[in-house]
From TrEMBL:
One GO MF term: oxidoreductase activity, acting on the aldehyde or oxo group of donors, NAD or NADP as acceptor
Entry keyword set: Oxidoreductase
Family: Belongs to the aldehyde dehydrogenase family.
Origin superkingdom: Bacteria
Entry coiled-coil feature ranges: none
Pfam families for this protein: Aldedh
Gene3D superfamilies documented for this protein: Aldehyde Dehydrogenase, Chain A, domain 1, Aldehyde Dehydrogenase, Chain A, domain 2
Protein's UniProt name: Aldehyde dehydrogenase family protein
Annotated organism of origin: Streptomyces liliiviolaceus
Source taxonomy: Bacteria, Bacillati, Actinomycetota, Actinomycetes, Kitasatosporales
Residues in Aldehyde dehydrogenase domain copies: 18-483
Amino acid sequence: MTGAPASSVRGLFIGGSWVEPDGGHYEVIDPATEDVVGLAPEASRDQVHAAAGAAREAFRTWSRTTPEERAAVLHRAAEEIRRNLLPYAELAQAETGATTGTARGMQVGVGAARFQRYARVEPVEEPLPPQINEAGPFGGAAVLGALAVRRPVGVVTCITSYNNPWANPAGKIAPALAMGNTVLVKPAPQDPLSVYRMAEALEAAGVPPGVVNVVSGSRAEVGEAAVDSDDVDMVSFTGSTAVGRRIAEVCGRGMKRQLMELGGKGAAIVFEDADLESAVRGIGTTFSFYSGQICTAPTRVLAQRPIYDRLVSVLSVHARRLPVGDPRSPSTVVGPLISSAHRDRVESYVELGRKEGARVVAGGERPPLERGFYVAPTLLADCTPDMRVVREEIFGPVVVVVPFDDEEEAVALADDTDYGLIDYVWSGDVSRAFRVASRLRTGGVGINTVGRNMEAPFGGFKQSGVGRDVGSYALHAYAELQSMVWPG
């Protein structure tokens, strides 16, 4: 058995206590070895609703604490996570199949950084210009002052994705707590053990009982209960667009606030004057970073015809050179997918691409490894805009390439999608790159980079989501605006 032993997961975390799950436990599988990592608690609907009730009760006092008090708890949580970075990363690696560098830096490291980021106290009041009102039906002439004040929403259900069990939950929990909300966290069923470690870190940091609650389960009813509880005021969800739609329907019936970070099919527009090596390195992260299991990946390459053949050739060489295998090995770049079911799904898309007429330039076969849920980095060339492999999110190490002739066609092809999370533009003409970026219907654009600025707003247009988070924008997302008006 790899990772943490099953006995180290004490149960559900409800109201500040570790509670035995009504549904027993289920196995969490290491996607690299297919061994059992540990046993995760299976909550019942009643237990999920009890957790929401505990969060509602705790909100009465937590929402009245000062921002400084809340910041101190988040700071101590960040320190606790950093102290335990190596064992936390080892568990995260066992649950997700992430490489060692990713587990330490991008998972646990970023998780700690996000708690530290929201330990910063920011103003919640914005003074508005005084307004001079003449005498009328509502009284005599007066000068009225006003403030716009951000208030906590209430109880927030945080439903997190399986590709990063540290950074994703931390990016929800930390800003929600900083604003005075309380949370009910429902981690992805594939890797919940790390989120319980996060709960332990918050408990050690002195978070009051009921402010943070964690429930898990392999059955859909656990997530459904976390959304439909009458005690929940807001749902923050990261995951597929299909599940996001179902959550939105439930939230709509109760007028619950939503923050949705959903699917993506990022277009990478590569003009003929681009630095091709830089573009290939950026696009190639789709093959390596989380094995393509990331919604921000540049999976849909639009290459201008004069450099189309060269880009396909260089990118295929890049894909074939990436070492695939045990994520614990220092030489590994591409680890496994999260599960056998997801591997089958990704492989079915590659086969679909073949049937649709795409040319498999690299990959397209299962790596010769005895165990683990691996898919070779795959490049599909000669694709057309109507192909399903071009239009649908595959969520694996698969890149498709479509040619274009001019700037107008590039923009049209990039926007010909249901999604709009992040696109990318590579060009040696910075003026053109920014001009094209401003025309794209997408929440973010990387210009000659796949890098992220962690203070920039993050979220999508169209079916890629609702709302924005990251940096100060996350504080706004987990707040309601209240206006206060008084005679000057």
